[in-house]
Design a protein that fits this description.
By secondary structure, the chain is of the alpha/beta class. It is built from 16 helices and 18 strands. The strands form six sheets. The chain has a five-stranded antiparallel sheet with strand order 7-8-9-11-10. The radius of gyration is 28 Å and the shape is elongated. The two termini are about 45 Å apart. The relative contact order is 0.11.
Length: about 475
């Protein structure tokens, strides 16, 4: 039984998808105006671990992760300039060129981190018609109104607006009123933009569309969608009115995801998401990642330091998705050491003389039972709100277990279907036939208790550049 922590109910719940073993899963993807830092990439890896866990548990996952390439202003509360357009002006490129540039970098990073490709990865600019339909539905339902600058969602019309966040709306209204409001005609500081008109502070917007809206005082005006609207429209088009899982960072709870729920449920009359999952932040040296401090590291920075991207992925495995994680270079080095120890276990070529050991056949059924016990532990870990750190601990239990190396490798490779460390791509050492022959002769000498011959053959193997290590039911060979 899979249990997940639902932000909406603030407790763990048994996971029950809407359609049998098929799971609809939407994650808020990147706003593609810059190179994503490792904190953003951690969120992508965490979602990937959940997708892999669901797959391992027998579910079919329809995973959607979007690209925001318009409408995300420098303030999540509908203030400031469009982030893409700001970057476009700085780099002297078009917004599309900016989006294309940083999507390419992002997708290279996700490949390097062995993140499975989403079922769909929509770009907001390709779903303008769907967004316009959603806005019109909200207008027709009496949830939206227009000013000279934008079409807004009227928050007071939607019951339980704060059910996800539990926020104090009166305090929010007071706090919002303290800031600079670009549209004085908003009915409430909490009301959020569904569609911005190309007017006022946005009269120089670079990405706009002409859309005809009915039943408002300005039926045809050029403009662009609000950020919150985009995710609702894309997820609705690709996955339906109600999703099984929606994931994003904890910073999205009070504004972005709260607004998604309001507009989606007001338009459809149905529950928007059954299970809300939120990942915590990555800090650096105990503080927030910041460009000004030189701590907003990208994957390219990690690679420049000589680290394989899989080392960063392994580092991310060490903390639960709902826990904060602190990045340091020493911690990354520790992750490298731990990952190397797992690789060593996989890379070894295992040579067994099963016919020479009476224990092998006697213990075969016992070994199967032991392997199954480790698999049960692993399943228990990932079924408990995707507890990947605990699942990783099971891997090291397997490494330390009194099992043949072949069984250990097979078990770890099976677990790596979830961990995603690419261990199946590791090529085993090719042992020369001469060395294999000497190892077999030495094993026979050990069984015959001819230890003098056994030691001599070990020395010969050593001179050829290989090490033979004795195990309970045979031996293993590896390069020095």
């Amino acid at each position: 039984m899979l249990n997940v922590y639902n932000t909406l109910s603030r407790k763990k719940e048994e996971f029950k998808p809407l359609k049998g073993k098929t799971v609809s899963f939407y994650q808020c993807g990147p706003t593609v105006y810059w190179t994503q830092h490792i904190g953003n990439l951690r969120a992508m890896v965490l979602a990937d671990l959940i997708v892999r866990s669901l797959d391992y548990l027998g579910y079919k996952v329809k995973f959607v992760r979007n690209y925001t390439d318009v409408g995300h202003l420098t303030s999540d509360r509908d203030e400031g300039e469009d982030k893409l357009e700001k970057a476009a002006r700085q780099e002297k490129l078009s917004p599309k060129e900016i989006a294309d540039k940083y999507i390419k970098i992002f997708e290279s990073d996700t490949r390097d981190l062995n993140i499975i490709e989403p079922w769909r990865k929509p770009r907001a600019t390709a779903y303008i018609k769907e967004m316009a339909k959603l806005v019109q539905a909200l207008i027709d339902g009496g949830y939206a109104y227009a000013t000279d600058l934008a079409i807004y969602f009227e928050v007071k019309k939607f019951k339980n607006y704060n059910k996800l966040s539990g926020q104090n709306l009166e305090k929010n209204i007071t706090d919002a009123g303290k800031g600079e409001v670009s549209d004085p005609n908003k009915k409430s500081p909490l009301d959020f933009a569904l569609w911005f008109f190309k007017a006022g502070v946005h009269q120089n917007a670079l990405q706009t569309w002409k859309v005809k809206f009915k039943n408002i005082n300005q039926p045809v005006l050029e403009g662009f969608p609000g950020w919150h609207l985009e995710c609702s429209a894309m997820s609705r088009k690709l996955l339906g009115d109600t999703l099984d899982i929606h994931m994003g960072g904890v910073e999205h709870i009070p504004v972005h995801h709260t607004n998604e729920i309001a507009q989606s449920e007001a338009a459809s009359g149905k529950k928007f998401v059954d299970y809300w999952l939120h990942n915590e932040h990555l800090t650096v040296d105990g503080g927030k990642m910041a460009k000004s401090e030189g701590t907003s590291y990208s994957l390219a920075d990690i690679k420049k330091k000589g680290y394989d991207p899989m080392v960063l992925r392994y580092f991310f495995l060490q903390a639960h998705y709902r826990s904060k994680q602190n990045f340091t270079w020493s911690a990354l080095e520790g992750a490298k050491t731990a990952l190397d120890s797992i690789k060593d276990k996989i890379v070894e070529t295992h040579c067994y003389a099963s016919k020479m050991s009476t224990e092998t056949h006697v213990n075969a059924s016992l070994q199967r039972r032991i392997n199954e016990e480790y698999r049960k532990k692993f399943l228990s870990a990932i079924s408990d709100d995707f507890n990947i750190p605990q699942a990783l601990a099971v891997v090291f239990e397997v490494i330390k277990a009194d099992l043949p190396s072949g069984d250990k490798s097979a078990t770890i490779l099976d677990f790596d279907k979830v961990l995603g460390l690419g261990l199946d791509k590791i090529k085993p050492i090719k042992i020369p036939k001469e060395v294999e022959k000497l190892a077999r002769e030495r094993q026979k000498a050990r069984v015959d208790k001819d230890f003098k011959k056994s030691d001599r053959l070990r020395d010969e193997i050593d001179k050829l550049g290989y090490v033979v290590e004795d195990e309970k039911d045979g031996y293993k060979l590896k390069k020095k």
